[in-house]
Amino acid sequence: MRNRRSKVLDDFKEFMSPGKVRVYRRYGMTVVMDDREGACFHDFNGRRFYNFHCNGGVFNLGHRPESTAKALRDAMAAKMDMGSWCAHNPIRERFAEALAATMPAPLPRVLLCASASDAVDAAIRLAMTHTKRAKVVSAHGGYHGSSAYAVAAGDARFRDPVHGQLPGFVQVAFGDALAMEHEIDGNTAAVILETIPASYGMVIPPDDYFARIRAACDKHGAIFIIDETQTGLGRTGKLWAIEHWGVAPDALICGKGTSGGYYPIAAACFSDRFDATLDGGFFHYTESAGSDLGCAVALRVLEITNTPEFLDNVLGRATQFEGWLKDLVKRYPRYLHGFRQKGMFMALVFRDEATSMAALKSMFDHGVYTVYAANDKRAIQILPPLTITDEEYRHGARALDDALVAMDRLKYRALRAILRLAVTSPV
To answer: For a surface tag, which of 61, 242, 297, 407 has the fewest beta carbons within 10 Å of its beta carbon?
Structure first.
């Protein structure tokens, strides 16, 4: 097995990314995924990990959920394949109708896309075309994908290595409604925001934040786009996180969880105010957008997540996590500053980056797989499957607790000291 694992790493280094292999080896955090089930997966060396990241929501239903696997098998048995974007297709129309029916506002026009980044590009381009304006306002610390307009709307950390700041794209602090109101004007085509930005450490915006942005957009004729790629499909205890604020966007982006863990698919949903702009029917399309197989899986995801029972279960589990997180903060004040939470969208916030990164290494060593927030490394994301069982919760929570206990060992104290020479971002 070791030889097989080494060959995978050697091949990855040779044909994909030598840099990624080098970085993971340097920190002793290399994983070669083998079998996986529910909230867990195993490395080729037999180590079990509790997945407390879930690819930002791809595995909302856990690893290899039978419900979406069956939807995929049934679609293939029904002689479906990717299909054609040129043609009409019943499964695409069924998924679009079902998705539109779940929206927190009347957004009856559904544009099927290959990825959430693709959907963000489409939404921004539609806003520009519709308004005949070029200004796009977003927030520092955000992440909307890696394609052209999506990366332009994201934080400078992602944007600057690619092309710097594109003309017309501006950013203000997330959560600062006054700064946003000052920036939105008659030249603004769109405002795009994550409901809660994962890459910024799950910062929860003020209660009046989105209502004030909605009002500013209405005042100046700008399009309000909400990116629910990571917060959607029940992650916060409501199907769409924006429902907590009671605000209706003009467009909503969804993805990741729509895959059911098996087939990538995303969508952008729009108000019918865009009908004239979309009238030709060929506004945005790619050969792999809205695959018939992907629609079959995504439709099943909606059938599962858009039920009171599922959402009530998420809220119940969130309450359980809340008590545990409060207890961790109380017992480990040397390391932890606090936590952030909306449903099962959670982050532990450490005292400084060095402590956070050392803790992440300890979590890895103790079998908890997660990541820090890219734009605030003091925050470690806690995103287990929404379907995590009682047993998985107990074992995963115990493993993370053990990781924090171990932080007093010489190994992790030395790592913190080394990291402190390189990073300086106290809370």
So the answer is: 407
pTM of the model: 0.94
Q: What DSSP line would sit under 174-204, residue for residue?
A: TT-HHHHHHH--TTEEEEEEESS-GGGT-PP
Q: pLDDT over 70 for what percent of the chain? A: 97
Domain 66-305 CATH (choose: 3.40.1050.10, 3.30.530.20, 3.40.640.10, 3.30.230.70): 3.40.640.10
CA dihedral 244→104→209→305, nearest 10 degrees, is: 40
> Would you call 33 helix, strand, or coil by DSSP?
strand
For residue 40, pLDDT over 60 is answered with yes
Query: Which residue ranges does the chain devote to CATH 3.90.1150.10?
Result: 31-64+308-420
Nearest to residue 156, comparing CAs of 134, 171, 177? 171
Which residues have CB under 8 Å from 209's CB, separation 6+?
Answer: 175, 177, 245
pLDDT in tens, 361-411: 999 999 999 999 999 999 999 999 999 999 999 999 999 999 999 999 999
Contacts of 88 (CB under 8 A, 6+ apart): none
**Contact (Cβ atoms closer than 8 angstroms) between residue 353 and residue 424:** yes
| CA 354 – CA 422 distance, rounded (Å) | 8
* Ramachandran sector of residue 261 (left: φ over 0; alpha: ψ -120 to 50; beta: rest): left
Q: Which residues contact 151 (CB under 8 A, 6 or more apart)?
A: 144, 145, 158, 159, 162, 163
The pLDDT, as a whole number, for residue 423 is 67
Tell me whether residue 295 is exposed, middle or buried, using C-beta atoms within 10 angstroms of its C-beta: 0 to 12, 13 to 18, 19 or more. buried
CATH C-level class of 31-64+308-420 = alpha beta
d(CA 423, CA 408): 20
